[in-house]
Structure to design on (382 residues):
């Protein structure tokens, strides 16, 4: 029998929690909550609507927002598109300048580039060597026509946390709106939108044990965005389309579990990280690329001196990890996030992201470290 690789790619996606899967399954078949939540003419529709609204409350409770500020989307890619394009188009009379950074998720960077072709202006900020955006750097980029700033709460490759409170204050003082991609921060950092100066925030279910294909955009009361998808006027006109009851209840349950088990979960991740870092630091030629002090607890980005990461991934076939690099036919491009924080192309191509989560055990970390001890000398001196 072939056993499954040990999963160290939680930052790419997580398995669905069985408790979430149970709730989702109840929304599919004839006996379940299958009706259209927009059907107002019968009880089955009302029950489906109730299920959707309950999930909306569960999502808003984790981030301390009003349920009316949550707009369902197909994921964070759509939420980022809606936030940037929807806001810039709706507010183009006030200004056409957007500020973001070079190490955002592609869903932000590519949306910003698409906006440039529509005549909007974009400034891409450069982070420091750990991936943080400095408040001064942001201040200097703001212009009279800046209407929106979009920065991530935590980076998906290196886990670096931005000071959202401080950056948001600067944006607010300037009178612009602040969008935050919080995908990698949710369930790892405590987010309180009653306190944070954030106007829009992107979320997704599948990175915290919910299903793929569902996410949400928090849109603070008073913020105006244009819809990207037109139709029946669902989600108060911001995002039309029949609501995916099973996906939505799954996301609600995942967010509710994240809230309930927050401390336990973070402790678990911190213990795993400590164990992994302790083991890695004993191995020669290993360099930790991220700043463990200001980083989400489930991501460790590691450079292996003199070893190309693709070769190492092949040798570590009993484990599932990723590099941030992208293959373009003949060439391999290093991760734009790692080169974006000033790393050389060579070092970036020697780096691997280990990310772990709810179902990772101490034993998994031990197995990984043992395997590294075994294969690194072989690969280096072959
Ligand atoms: C995964 C991810 C996204 C994209 O989310 P999807 O729901 O898969 O579209 C956006 N931003 C960050 C930081 C991510 O890690």
């Amino acid at each position: 029998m072939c056993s499954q690789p040990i999963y160290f790619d939680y930052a790419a996606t997580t398995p669905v929690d069985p408790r979430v899967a149970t709730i989702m399954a109840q929304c599919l078949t004839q006996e379940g909550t299958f009706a259209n939540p927009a059907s107002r003419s019968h009880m089955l529709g009302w029950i489906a609507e109730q299920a959707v609204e309950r999930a909306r409350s569960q999502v808003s409770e984790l981030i301390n927002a009003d349920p009316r500020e949550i707009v369902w989307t197909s994921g964070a890619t759509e939420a980022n598109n809606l936030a940037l394009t929807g806001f810039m188009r709706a507010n183009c009379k006030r200004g056409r300048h957007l500020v973001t950074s070079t190490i955002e998720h592609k869903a932000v960077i590519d949306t910003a580039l698409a906006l440039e072709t529509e005549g909007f202006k974009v400034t891409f900020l450069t982070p420091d060597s750990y991936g943080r955006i400095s408040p001064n750097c942001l201040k200097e980029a703001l212009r009279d026509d800046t209407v929106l700033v979009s920065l991530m709460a935590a980076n998906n490759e290196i886990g670096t946390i931005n000071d959202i409170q401080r950056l948001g204050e600067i944006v607010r003082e300037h009178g612009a709106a602040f969008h935050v991609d919080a995908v990698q921060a949710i369930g790892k950092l405590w987010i309180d939108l009653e306190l944070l100066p954030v106007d829009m925030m992107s979320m997704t279910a599948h990175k915290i044990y919910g299903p793929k294909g569902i996410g949400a955009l928090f849109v603070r009361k008073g913020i105006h965005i244009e819809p990207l998808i037109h139709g029946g006027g669902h989600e108060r006109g911001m995002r039309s389309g029949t609501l995916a009851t099973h996906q939505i209840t799954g996301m609600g349950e995942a967010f509710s579990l994240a809230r309930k088990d927050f401390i336990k979960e973070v402790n678990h991740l911190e213990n795993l990280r400590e164990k992994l870092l302790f083991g890695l630091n004993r191995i020669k030629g290993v360099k930790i690329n991220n700043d463990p002090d200001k980083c989400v607890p489930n991501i460790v980005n590691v450079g292996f001196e003199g070893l190309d990461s693709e070769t190492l991934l092949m040798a570590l076939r009993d484990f599932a990890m990723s590099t941030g690099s992208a293959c373009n036919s003949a060439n391999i491009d290093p991760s734009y996030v790692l080169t974006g924080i000033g790393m050389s192309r060579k070092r970036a191509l020697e780096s691997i992201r280990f990310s772990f989560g709810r179902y990772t055990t101490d034993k998994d970390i031990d197995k990984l470290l043992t395997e590294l001890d075994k294969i690194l000398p072989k690969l280096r001196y072959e």
Remarks:
- The chain has two domains: 6-15+262-381, 18-260.
- The first strand starts at residue 6 and ends at 7.
- The domain at 18-260 is CATH 3.40.640.10 (Aspartate Aminotransferase; domain 2).
